[in-house]
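I am still getting used to backbone structure tokens and would like to learn alongside you. Please make up or recall a protein chain and show it to me in full. Would you write everything just below, so we can both look at the same thing?
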Amino acid sequence: MPAVSGGRRPANRQLLADYVYQELLASLMDGRLEPGAGIGIDRMAQELEVSQTPIREALARLEATGLVRREALKGYRVAPLFTAEELDELMDSRAVLEPPIAERACAHVTPAVLAELEQAVDDLRGAPTGPTFAEYGAYWEADERFHRIIAQNAHNRFLLNAYNALGGQVQRFRFFGNLGVTDAENAIAEHSRILEAFEAGEPAKAREAMLAHISNVRSRAISDASTATTS
């Protein structure tokens, strides 16, 4: 797994940890670390020319997203592809959880939160959507940030914990499907409709717009899954 950035490693400890995390994440996103493959900490440390400590820290962060799994006495392994049943269950979970979160967040929206949501949608519109993580990483980050801002401002710690528990599972299929971003135009329009409900201060419409978005994401994910299995 060659380093992605090709640049010099940061000297600062936190910057180094972030650098290693981004390198491993990019390798997962681009399919260089394949689903089910073991991840050797020693080998990774040698390839990235770092100690084992930032590798372990990065893998722990990735484990929290569901992208890698730690097995007793075996170490870390790349998470497997979603099954159709798992994908269906994930989308069910999102449809139950995120619409009421959006409704509550809209009821408590402030100018500062609204500005953050507007920035996230602007970033989505301006982000590239090429086939590699280096090209679509900014798009994914803005997408994830939009949903996270809403969850963080729903004024309910238990709903936030439930949202956080989904972790990277929300994006796991797309990452390992090796399809990049296939639904940008539709997704941006759907995010914009959610934003419009927040701007209008209409919680019920925010809930409806979020549910419509999740339903459409579900349909597109099923289509992408079919494409991935037949290509």
